[in-house]
Amino acid sequence: MHIPDSIRQELPGIAGAFNGQVMRGHLQAALFGPTRAHFAIESCTPDKPLYTPGVHCSVQYEVQAKDLATGAVLEPVVVGRVFPDRARCDAYVAERLLPLVARARGRADLATFAAPAATIEPLDMCIHVLPLDAEMPALIEVTDPRRMVEVLRDTLPPSLLPNGRAAPDCSVELVSYRRRQRCVLRYTMVGDGPRLVVYGKLAPLRRGPPYSQILEPLRAHLARGERFTIPRLLGFRPDLGLALLEEVPGEAAVGPALRARLCDRPPPGGQPLEEMLATCARVAAALHGSGLRLGAERTLDDELRALARDVEVTRPFAPALAERASGWLQRLAAHARRSEPLPARLCHGDFKHTQLLFDGPRTGMVDFDTICLAEPALDVGHFVAYLNTQVEKMQRRGKAGAPPRDLGERFLREYLAATGVDELRLRSRMAIYEAASLLRMALHSRQKFQDVRGEGTAALLEERMPLLS
Question: Going by CATH, does the domain composed of 254-468 fall within 3.10.20.740?
Answer without folding.
Answer: no
